[in-house]
Design goal:
heterodimer, A: 151 residues, mainly beta, OB fold (Dihydrolipoamide Acetyltransferase, E2P), 5-stranded mixed beta sheet, 10 strands, globular, B: 707 residues, alpha+beta, Four Helix Bundle (Hemerythrin (Met), subunit A), 5 domains, 24 helices
């Protein structure tokens, strides 16, 4: 983790299916309402298309599918969060569809425990787990998710 | 200050490329004084401006070179190819110094070069070389016939020092043109106590005998002509200075306090008459003609004399500046603005359509017209002739053929062909590589060539020409050609093909462009490291271009590059496929037909018969999204695909559309079907199809092989 991330302990939490996930705020540029997405022929199935974001063409992926979770039904709460992703030496922007944006949580490093060592194949993408009230929040490693992902 | 350094940097780059060009020309003709002078001038400019902008080492170094070329032009040293090679190396060195003037490593090399120059200078018979410019030296320049005598008044404005201009430099520059008599006028000098040291009170009157023309002289004053009083007049078309006594007579006249142009002119006419009488150098048959010419000069000068005095004091003719240097950043932002304008215009059209207001439609159509012209001009400004990189190739050919002991000649045709500056700069490396290949693998050594009844000197043809909206560049050599058997063997060894694969020649040549392929048995430092043609191909593909190789053993190889003219705006056809918008580049569209859905559905093998012609086609609505394929009105657009015509089925045809290509970066890497995307008037995104790739991808044939 770089300095910026360790200084700010804020994470944006959101829902994917029934689970709660979070990503560090430094990775999140913007939250948009789900708008019409232009489909891209011959694209991978998790790539939902592109949107026009201030005159730039922004790819949009379904975060559920990208993480190997089942696709969900779009609701009024479905959002696109624009992520800033480091790929090699480039920083690219990707829109990610999530089911619901919840909150900004302040979580100290001590409150984050290592990800469970057993379980689903998404573990590489999880930095750690924290608990708020009675829910587990899985903190995603955004750069790692898109490291090998082709969009 | 940084800005100025940047300016110098640009200027120096220009000078260096000019140097290279001049040296290459000079190589064919060591005697060409004009070219030698050019080299000298380049060195001189580099030295002068280098010192001014703090490139002290560069300046010192070029000073040495300047000295060398001064000796050459005064015939104390004879120019040979060794010196030219050396000077080229020096040129390279100077460009390194430009990057880093204080680098210790470079300074060491600088010293080596300097020693070399000093040796050259020592070996020549010069006893001692005077580093200080002195005027007597200039009178040693053999005055060629064709010299004219100019009368020049240079009266700088008082504030000239404020721009950092040193008027003496300008005077020096004039003196460099030939032989001069210079008079300093200090009549305007105020009393000592009134002198403001920041002001210039001096002016000069110069008689200059030179073979340059008036324009060259006024060029010297180009930066000061607005503020200063400058008079340039032809005193005589004859080389008065060659006449004995004439210099002292003119000098006397000039230094006479009340002198003016008219007096001098009268004197000049008398001298001219003397000259034509005493002139015995001119051969007899030319003499009569010359006298006639002389008469006309006298007549014309008489006419001039009758004109009012102030005629002589008019400003020099306005200089035609036919090119303007603009920083490429400014150009880029202009292009960006144009692109935005085109997008906005598209929105206006959409609004005009929905509002159904006649006035608005007319206006928006006019606006569209203007935008289109504006766009074309703006893009045209970015085009630069391919010439700019060809010079580099010439140098490459020369250096490389020398080091390989081959004789190679580069013939460049169509170098005036213009291409987008971005494409040109991206094109330089691939072409260099192709030429390198041609010299290293293609052209044989002279002995072999002789044996094969070929001229000893191999030729590489470089040919650029327009073809529709593309540009086609051929690089052809008359070398050994590609040995297909060798290529196959190598491909087998590298598991690129299977034993028993039956390949056409075309396919074999395409193997050369696969990664990691090199047929050269000896890996030289020039080519053969396996990072060859595949890189070339990738770079050309990045530019939306195509590469193809043809070759005949024993006769030669030809590489053909096809490139688009510009990268960022294309004319296209806006269509919908399954209610998503797409753009098909107009450049590839052949014809548009309307067909009904039944005909498409009933077709066999994806071939359809329209008006008696059979077309293979790609059913895009179905291919793009089989599940929700729409059967709305169908249009059939035929596009050219390699040398064939293939149909594309789309749902709706909207209009012609100018698409501003937006990069789709990460999407594009894995989705080659689209050249880019564009944002439509209503804010929606439409992808711009690369028809060739779409057809490649969806026509089942060869599909597997490509993947």
């Amino acid at each position: 983790m770089n300095n910026k991330e360790s200084i700010i302990n804020s994470y944006l939490s959101f829902k994917l299916g029934n689970e709660t996930y979070a990503a560090h705020v430094s990775k999140i540029l913007k939250i948009l309402q789900l708008s019409e997405v232009t489909k891209v022929p011959n694209a991978p199935s998790n790539m939902k298309g592109v949107i026009n974001h201030h005159g730039n063409v922004l790819p949009v992926i379904d975060l559920n599918q990208t993480l190997g979770l089942p696709e969900t039904i779009r609701t009024n709460n479905t959002c696109i969060i624009i992520l800033s992703v480091e790929q090699g030496n480039n920083i690219i922007n990707i829109g990610a569809i999530v089911d619901e944006v919840l909150n900004v949580e302040n979580v100290n490093d001590e409150q984050i425990s290592d990800p469970p060592s057993l379980g689903a194949n998404t573990l590489d993408h999880i930095v750690g787990v924290t608990k708020k009230d009675d829910t587990f929040i899985m903190i995603l490693d955004i750069d790692n998710i898109f490291k090998e992902l082709k969009i | 200050m940084e800005d100025f350094r940047k300016l110098f940097y640009d200027e120096a780059r220009d000078l260096l490329s000019k140097l290279e060009e001049t040296l290459l020309l000079l190589e064919d003709n060591f005697e060409n004084k004009e070219l030698i002078n050019e080299v000298f001038r380049i060195m001189h400019s580099l030295k002068g401006s280098g010192a001014m902008f703090g490139f002290l080492n560069l300046s010192k170094f070029t000073h040495n070179l300047e000295t060398l070329y001064d000796e050459i032009r005064s015939d104390t040293i004879t120019l040979n190819s060794e010196i030219i090679t050396f000077t080229m190396q020096c040129g390279d060195h100077v460009s390194k110094l430009l990057e880093n003037d204080d680098d210790d490593e470079l300074l060491k090399v600088t010293d080596d070069f300097k020693t070399y120059i000093n040796n050259l200078l020592k070996n020549s018979d010069t006893i001692s070389h005077q580093l200080v410019e002195d005027k007597s030296k200039h009178s040693e320049i053999p005055t060629k016939s064709g010299n004219k005598v100019f009368y020049i008044e240079f009266d700088p404005c008082e504030d000239i020092f404020n721009d950092g201009t040193n008027p003496l430099y300008l005077v020096d520059e004039l003196i460099d043109f030939g032989e001069a008599i210079v008079k300093l006028n200090y009549n305007n000098l105020p009393d000592f106590y009134d002198i403001n040291p920041e002001k210039c009170y001096l002016s000069w009157t110069i008689l200059l005998s030179t073979n340059k023309d008036k324009r060259d002289i006024s060029d010297v004053f180009i930066f000061v002509e607005d503020e200063s009083n400058i008079v340039i007049e032809v005193l005589s078309d004859k080389d008065l200075f060659s006449l004995k006594n004439s210099v002292s007579i003119l000098k006397h006249e000039l230094f006479n306090n009340h002198t003016n142009f008219i007096n001098l002119k009268t004197e000049a006419i008398t001298l001219e008459e003397q000259l034509s009488e005493t002139d015995i150098i001119i051969p007899i048959d030319q003499k009569s003609e010359d006298k006639e010419e002389n008469k006309t000069t006298v007549e014309s000068t008489k006419k001039e004399l009758t004109k009012p005095d102030n005629q002589a004091v008019t400003n020099p003719q306005p200089i035609n500046i036919d090119t303007v240097k603009v920083s490429s950043l400014k150009l880029d932002s202009l292009i960006n603005l144009v692109s935005e304008l085109v997008t906005t215009q598209a929105r206006l059209i959409t609004i005009a359509h929905t509002n159904k207001s006649n006035e608005l439609s007319v206006l928006s159509e006019d606006f569209q017209h203007l935008t289109r012209q504006f766009r074309d001009i703006a893009f045209d400004m970015r085009l630069i002739p391919i010439e700019t990189i060809v010079v580099k190739f010439k140098r490459l050919v020369r250096d490389l053929s020398k080091s390989l002991g081959k004789k190679v000649n580069l013939v460049a045709v169509g170098t005036e062909t213009e291409l987008d500056k971005n494409i040109i700069s991206a094109l330089s490396d691939p072409i260099m590589h192709i030429i390198r290949n041609a010299i290293d693998h293609g052209i044989e050594i002279p002995e072999t060539r002789k044996k094969n009844n070929k001229p000893e000197t191999g030729t590489i043809y470089f040919d650029a020409k327009y073809s529709g909206t593309s540009i086609i560049i051929h690089i052809k050599d008359d070398g050994a050609g590609i040995n297909t058997a060798k290529v196959l063997k190598k491909a087998l060894a590298n598991d690129l093909i299977q034993l028993g694969d039956d390949l056409t020649n075309e396919q074999i040549f395409n193997l050369l462009m696969l990664p990691g392929f090199s047929t050269s048995e000896v890996v030289t430092n020039i080519s053969g490291r396996g990072v060859g043609m595949d890189v070339v191909r990738k770079k050309i593909l990045d530019l939306h271009g195509e590469v193809s190789i043809t070759s005949e053993e024993g006769i030669g190889t030809s590489v053909k590059l096809k490139l688009p003219l510009t990268l960022s705006i294309i004319d296209g056809l806006l269509v919908t496929i399954n209610s998503e918008s797409f753009i098909i580049p107009l450049s590839s569209v052949v014809q548009i037909y309307q067909v009904n859905e039944k005909k498409i559905r009933n077709s066999v093998n994806n071939i359809i018969d329209i008006e008696g012609v059979q077309f293979p086609f790609v059913n895009l609505p179905k291919k793009f999204d089989n599940s929700s394929a729409s059967n709305q009105v169908l249009h059939f657009i035929t596009v050219s695909y390699h040398n064939k015509t293939v149909g594309l089925v789309v749902n709706e045809l909207i209009s012609e559309y100018q698409a501003v290509l937006k990069p789709i970066g990460s999407i594009q890497q894995n989705n080659e079907l689209f050249a880019g995307a564009t944002i439509l008037g209503d804010g929606k995104i439409a992808f711009v199809m690369d028809t060739n790739k779409v057809i490649d991808f969806y026509s089942n044939q060869k599909n597997e092989e490509h993947e």
